[in-house]
Amino acid sequence: MAQMGSWGEPALFLATIINQLPIVSVFVPTEPVYVYLGTQLPQGGWTSLLICMLGAWIGAQGSFWLGRTAGARVLARMNAAPAAMARARRLFERRGAPFVVLAQLIWPIATLSQVLAGAWGMRPATYLAVSALGAPLAVLQYAAIGYVSASGLAALGLAPDEPLLVLLGPYRLLIGLALLLLIGWALILRRAKHALPLRIAYAALLALAMFGAVNLGTLTGRTDAAGRLAPLPLDLACRALDETLIARAGETPLHAAQPVNLALVGFDAPASLLEGLGWLRNRTYAGGDLEPTDILRLTYEGLPPASSVLLEGIATDLAWQKERGVVPRMQLRLWPVAVPTGVPPIYLASVGRIDAVTLRLGGRLPLPVLAYDLFPFTDSARNREAEAITRAIPGADWRLLGPSALPGEESQFESDGRIAVLRAPGAPALPEICGGAASARASATTRG
To answer: Where do the TM regions start and end (predicted)?
Structure first.
């Protein structure tokens, strides 16, 4: 599970306290953080959530005592509507403690209710008790949003289907989000004159942040594929000569399925070879240990983490991209193959161009999921990279093998379905290796 360690639990604790204080709480909206923590609950992570509950309870005491010692001045700064205050006063006088508990669950009046409890004379001991119930419930309701959303996405499947919106580049998206944030903050700073626009803008920003938290939490939390990091069996590599293998989206929904279209035979250090050709190594979700700050930093640097793509249920932690950037970019993944002693190293690979970031409907219900769009004409990328790799090593060669068409259900690739087999100098051809492996199996069966 991706922990909150990079943010620091003390910083999270402090932010949660500030979020409970009047006026300044709008500048530290921690609700999306609670949503994110909820997405992590299937993998554990109660420690950070408990810290948030404690911080919310302590912050609630601060609001209560501000109301008790300077209630009139604080309420004047909060600019609450007189009619709403009158209704709240009547509810407080009739219901008292239940009103305070329930009010803490409602974002627009949560902090106000804590100040009112102090200003209207609730006993400190009573407030200690009711806030000990209300503050944790206020945190848990947002965590429940994250938990239910992540669990629902997992249960319904994360494979993207119909596109909703194709973003031509992440920088346009970032600029749009920055403008939205600036407009929201401008309205917040002018809240005394624009109460209704402020509420609309702030609610929209919170909803957007929570949507982002669910997507981010789903990605960082679902790194179970790390347990399936293993070499591919040789039989699977040999099947690529007879059928087109398809690598499918794993626990992270960012990538569509893609054909396996390269094989490297006899290359002892493919990582060094690719880096020498200018390819840049990607961290992967399958490798685990990715925190939200890592994802944002790497994406900003133009090296976004590679999502989990599984070949027959096996993930790979070997991913590269051709140059810095997010969209479009060339990406290559390598799966090592388990070979017997005396057989040269074999790697299966999938190479293609990511063309766009897409907001899609994922699963059996129309739930929005972020995904990458793969350029459907994968053959040109396959042939170009096969040529570049073999040209870099004197004596190396490559040729196309395998079937002449993809299975019908994978027709969106617009590919011939073949695999480019690259052979290092002196290495046997893949058909020879597979023929030898088949002979060895047949011999073992006969002896048995």
So the answer is: 12-28, 48-67, 99-120, 140-159, 171-188, 200-219
Q: Return d(Cα 54, Cα 62) in angstroms, integer.
A: 13
Residue 336 to residue 1: CA distance in whole angstroms: 26
Question: 143 and 254: one domain?
Answer: no
Q: Do 14 and 140 sit in the same domain of this protein?
A: yes
As a whole number, mean pLDDT of residues 82-101 equals: 71
Indicate whether 195 belongs to any domain: no
Domain boundary among 135, 156, 177: 156
Contact 261, 349 (CB under 8 A): yes
- Whether 128 and 277 map to the same domain: the answer is no
- Mean pLDDT along residues 73-95: 66
State both tokens at 394. Answer: 């004197």
Same domain (yes/no): 152, 271: no
What type of residue sits at position 267?
A: F
CA atoms within 13 A on the CB side of 266: 19
Nearest to 382 by CA among 400, 367, 364: 400
For 258, the 3-state DSSP assignment is strand
Q: Is the pLDDT of residue 162 over 70?
A: no
Structural domain of residue 418, as residue ranges? Answer: 224-447
Last residue of a domain, one of 138, 156, 174: 156
- What is the number of structural domains in the chain? 2
Task: Report whether the peptide linkage leading into residue 328 is cis, meaning its omega lies within 30 degrees of zero.
Answer: yes
Q: Over the range 99-120, which residues count as b (16 or more CB within 10 Å of their CB) and which as e?
A: bbbbbbbebebbbbbbbbbbbb
Residue 175 lies in a domain: no
| Nearest-angstrom CA–CA distance, 92 and 98 | 9
Please report, for the chain, how many H helices and E strands are present, in that order. Answer: 14, 12
What whole-number distance in Å separates Cα of residue 71 and Cα of residue 234? Answer: 74
pTM: 0.62
Please report whether residue 267 resides in a domain. yes
Residue 416 pLDDT > 60, yes or no? yes
